Amino acid sequence: MKMPVLFVGHGSPMNAIEDNEFSQTWKSLGKRLPRPKAILAVSAHWYSGGTRTSDAINPRMIYDMYGFPEELYELKYPVPGSPELASKLKESLGDIVTIDNLWGIDHGTWSVLCHMYPDADIPVVQLSINHQASAMTHYEIGKKLRSLRTDGVLIVASGNVVHNLALINWQMEGGYPWAHEFDSYIMNNILDKNHDAVIHHERAGSSAEKAFYTPDHYFPLLYAIGASEPTDEIEVFNEKCLMGSMSMTGYLFG
Ligand code: ZN
């Protein structure tokens, strides 16, 4: 059986401890998707020099967020790692991937998975995003991950389609018009399987200039569409913009 691929808009780290529309969707996804043997997480928050992964048996939790309530730093999500999945990754990606066990499971991953799989009993391996690589390279790496799907691996790419903290308005309920415009541009092209327009996001025009100033939260999406197959059905979830400059929109391919 082939596992689906997910792109999740993770938004605020507070979603880890809040019961809201987003976390409820993640919970229900965990219940209705086929149970994976392992999870490969591509998190916006492991933005590194080179492509890295971990073969740690017990990866550590990374609390890579600042100024949030104590409760968030007390959350534990003690998932096992999977040296087996790490070695499959080495096989699929070859020399471009190196082992780095200094990182671990960061909040881009655990804030979502703690809702999807609250028992923390499915092994998780993270793959980093090389900040020196082009959008096309990220998409091509995503393609090489496709074969993992038939090995029972659920690929969870975690970022945000629109993510501009410099323009964020904490009081605003919805998104700025350009945030909705960019989010819709991406959604329409994903649904049309027009991946070129997603890789070259600048083709969206002026909305693309504000959607993000750094692509760390956007690049996970390219892994997800890369790992999707032409025959996959596509489901959109949590389609929403908030705080002006963030979109929570997620995609399920499979
Ligand atoms: Zn984030």
TL;DR of this structure?
33% of the residues lie in helices and 19% in strands.
What is the rounded Rg?
A: 17 Å
User: How many structural domains can be distinguished in the coordinates?
Assistant: 1
From the helix content, strand content and strand pairing, which structural class follows? alpha/beta
What percentage of the residues does DSSP assign to strands (E)? 15-25%
N/C terminus separation? 11 Å
Basic shape:
globular
| SSE string | EHEEHHEHEHEHHHHEEEE
CATH-defined architecture = 3-Layer(aba) Sandwich
Q: Which small compounds were modeled alongside the protein?
A: zinc ion
CATH topology: Protocatechuate 4,5-dioxygenase, Chain B
Query: By CATH's scheme, which homologous superfamily applies?
Result: LigB-like
Explain what the structure shows.
The longest helix is centred in the C-terminal third of the chain and has 15 residues, at 177-191. This protein has helices at residues 21-32, 70-74, 83-93, 107-116, 135-144, 177-191, 195-199, 206-211, 219-227; strands spanning 5-9, 38-48, 51-53, 97-99, 124-130, 153-159, 234-237, 241-242, 246-247, 250-253. Helix 1 packs across helix 4 (107-116) and helix 5 packs parallel to helix 9 (219-227). With 254 residues, the protein is an alpha/beta fold. The model has no long low-confidence stretch (mean pLDDT 97). The strands form 3 sheets. It has a 6-stranded mixed beta sheet, sandwiched between helices. It has one domain (5-175, 213-253): LigB-like (Protocatechuate 4,5-dioxygenase, Chain B, 3-Layer(aba) Sandwich). Bound molecules: zinc ion. Zinc ion is lined by residues 10, 44-45, 108, 217.
